[in-house]
Amino acid sequence: MIISLIKRWIIYIATIIGAITFYGVYDGYISYFILITVILFPFFSLAISLFSMLRIKFNLVPLPIEIRKSEVVSARININPRTWLPISQVNITYTANNVTLGRNSSLVTVMIFGSYKSYVSLQLNTEHVGCINLDIKKIRVFDYLGLFSLSLKTPEKRRILIMPKIERPDPMPILPIDKVGSKGLKPKPGGGFSEDYDLREYRIGDPLNAIHWKLTSKFDKIIVKEPLVSEKGKIFICFNLFGNAEEVDNIFGQISYIAHIFLRRMIEFNLCWYGKEGNLNVFNINEISDYLNFIGSVFNNPIELKGNAIDNKAFKDADWHYVISPNLPEKGDALNG
Amino acid sequence: MDKISKKVLAIAAQALTVFLGVYGILFANITSFNIKLNEVTVLIYCAVAAICFSIVFFAEKYKKTLYLSTMGISLIIFFINNERILNGFKFFLNILTSLISRFSSSIDATETVKLSRNGIIIANTAFFAFLGVLLIFLIAFTLIKLNPLWPTLFITIPIFALCMIFIKRVPDTTPVFAFLVFLTSINITNLVRQGDNKRGAKMTLFFIPIMLVFLLMISLVFSSKNYVRADFAAKIYSFFSERLPLSVTNPSRSEVSEDGSEEFSNSSRDESQVSEDSETETSEPVNRTDDFLDVDLRNADPNNRTGKVILQVKTDKTGEMLLRGYSLGYYTKSKWVKFNGDALSKLNLLTSVGSINENETAETIISPLSLATYVALTSDRYKKNYINITEMIKGGEVVYTPYYPSFSDFKSLNYNNDSVILYNDNYAYSKNVNAIYNIKIFNCDNIKAENTTNKYRDSEEYAKVKELESQYRDVVYQYYTQIDSATSNFLLEYTSDQNFHNISDREQLVDEVKNFVKNCAEYNLKAPKTPSGRDYVQYFLTDSKQGYCMHFATTATLIFRSFGVPARYVTGYAASIKGSEANTQVDVTDKNAHAWVEVYFDGIGWIPVDVTPGSVEERVNDPAYNDNSGSNSHEPNISEPVISSESNESEVTVESSLESEPVSSDKSSDLSFEQSDVSIEPFFSKYKNELLWITPVSVIFITVLILLIRRKSMQSKRKNHFGLSETNRIAVFTWKYIEKLKPYGVEADKNVYGIAQKAVFSKHILSDDELETIVSFAAEKGKEVDKKLGFFKRFVFRYIKGMY
What we know:
Order of helices and strands of chain A: HHEEEEEEEEEEEHEEHEEHE
Helix content of chain B: 40-55%
Helix content of chain A: 25-40%
Number of helices of chain A: 5
Distance between the termini of chain A: 44 Å
Shape of chain B: elongated
Strand content of chain A: 25-35%
Largest interface: A-B, 35 and 41 residues
CATH architecture of the largest domain in chain A: Sandwich
Oligomer: heterodimer
Number of strands of chain B: 19
Distance between the termini of chain B: 15 Å
């Protein structure tokens, strides 16, 4: 953009030099007239285009919050000159970074010529999952000759989540849909009422109101009624939160698939991975909103190419676990920490 | 605005822009180089080409057909006129190379083609029309088809710059303005054009008047009256002049004769020279054919006559007839030259009168050349004839007039000279090779002694004639009696035995001198040339004793002047019309070139006196002429004499032939010019009058058609919308229509507004009833508005806005 501006100014300066030379060589009034015209022309152009340049309004149409991977989406900027004359040239410079993968961060400039009331589509790259940050850095409008420009206020930044496409793990694990409904009963923490209860001998510390007086009178022992609750099994879905874009797409595609099955059956599960510092992150997912929060929180931070791989310690508390690994046709790097 | 209207507007805008640019380029060069052509023809070609090429390049369908047909038509027109175009190109190239050769000796002027003046005009018209069409094609192509602006600038600016680079004459303001408006408009809309060509073209239409205002403001604020060249400009000039050949080499301007007669040389025809000092002088093309020239007596050569037809005359008058070309005033011992500007301005007296004789034409111009005509016209027994003259070769600047003519053409002829009648530049006839004109001629018995008193002579109109004659007479005596003292002394001595000084009656004196001169020498076309340094007349009378019409006419003129009688040398053609040739076309060839004397008679005017022995027939048939009738290599100079026979037996004088011939017919026709059928664009010249009224009618018709189509298209558009399946969309469209009616005072009621809101913002699908409500409301309101508007506003409402 700067190059084209410089080019125009060079041409204009060359024209002025030519006009001055002609004025020197040709002593008629017409050479003087041409010189004055050349000198004043840009200012005249600025004067007639200034009103339009100041009146123009740009409006970024709201983006969807989330879309599926590879779904075509573009950010639309509505241009409204609010005058009868079109704008000669508008330059919109923006970046659309995938924060999660953190790799595409080039500055893109779109030039629109002769725009009237119209819109401009800024294409967004949805090839990979992640969170795209659309940041319109600069909007410049030019006068009719393209020599003078004006910077205008840019719209606010926008974010859009690119959700993973559901991908079936291969080989598909046998999910513990029936087994991990309940592991048994355990004493209800804090006591209280429960449909299931256990009878046992009194131990020091048991509350007095838990004493089953009827049985106590029959047995010469103090019998306590202990409420029980069912104990659910812990499902851990583990994965490595690092890798290249295709690996990350695949991992999250598989996570989506498994999560979709569990959530449909209202089975609670946990997602775990090792963070950058080696800390184990466990995210409990009970319902769809938890899952979306998980995606949002993970995608808002960059995913590195390399990181700490999942090990046995990660799922030591799990009653059932599955480690997701990328399922790509041609494996790249091994999932090593 | 629907799609077709937009397209039409874009095409019109584009055509106008391109036309403006090409008009500026062409006419800046035409006015700068002072090129004579038919401007209307060039403009018509450019306008039609601009429209055609804009349509062709904007077309989306049938491109191949349009391209091929346009190309075909252009080629056909080119091949029909290729010779003229080529000739015009050679002329223009000759102009340019002549100018360049003044800067650089390594470049010579290219050859040009010899054509008549009218032929030059036709060739120039053809070439510039072709150039205009070519430029329009290139500019339309680059503007419409190519994105960047530089190809357009690359084509237009160098060609425009030609008008300023080589010469100092300033082109006309209008084409310069037009070109600058074009240039600024396309520059300012260049970026818009890159986005959408059609929108850019429409924006150009909007910006053209704005740019015009901008340039006018500059010309007012920085006007030429207050223009003072800056000092740095001189520095720039000197910087470049030391390194580049900016100065023009100046050929010598004046021709100084051996006798120092430069004082009386007429410098008004030296326009072919370029002066560095004068900005107003122009460089004329080297091939200009000037007819009104000084006569070089010493170097005249009458022997190269080929019998080439110069004029064709058709008249009801028989006998010998002198066709006057022009006269010259000052004798330099070897030449007859024109008076200087000061003398010419004093001799240039004109007036116009209404009808003097109610039987003849109304308003006429009285010039010194037609003073005698009114003496004849107001006599008791005047004779009236007509003559039709067609110029066959030289459509030069001199109009050949018989004696005594009546001048009623105010448009085509220039009377601002007492010696000659010239054609006005750029007159309609000048499109054609041949000029044809009719003149009424009058005469009476013994015009020299005419002293009738009648009601015509007492009229107010005739008083104007007398007044003019009186004023002119004083100046005539001042200038037309001038003679070198040595020549005068010689002639007085030579004629001392003739007792001319004792003759007081002018008529008698004229007769005596005429007879004397006729007999003073032998007529011989091969008379020896006057040696350098010798007086032409003296050598003729004393040494050679032989000569031709130039000798006799010069001698007689000087003898008259010696005796204080105003006289002048006249050159032209002498025709002989036999009885059987009356009212038929008679050829006047180069062999008919002749010279005679005009003597001024007080109260009457100039009277021709032919002092050459022999008759026209005898002179024309003189065997001394070369028999080269088929050769066209030499064009005769009308200042050179006609051969006469050696016999002096028949003294047929012009006066006697005029007296003896009866009035044969009374064909009266005003001096008017007819067009020949040689024309570069037969259609346009032939149907010019029809075009003048067809054009506005066509414009009105097309406008009406466009408005009708627009209304129909808007109505069908509304119908299409109502044919949609989605009721909500129909409702939205209808609401937009209701909003357009708001400026006319229409307010939507709450119900309708609610329905529109539902259609736009809710997911509710409107029912048929709801739709019917809003649609019927809109239709009703539209009808109401249409009814209540006045005629003009209704016209706008229906046809321009297309709302009903």
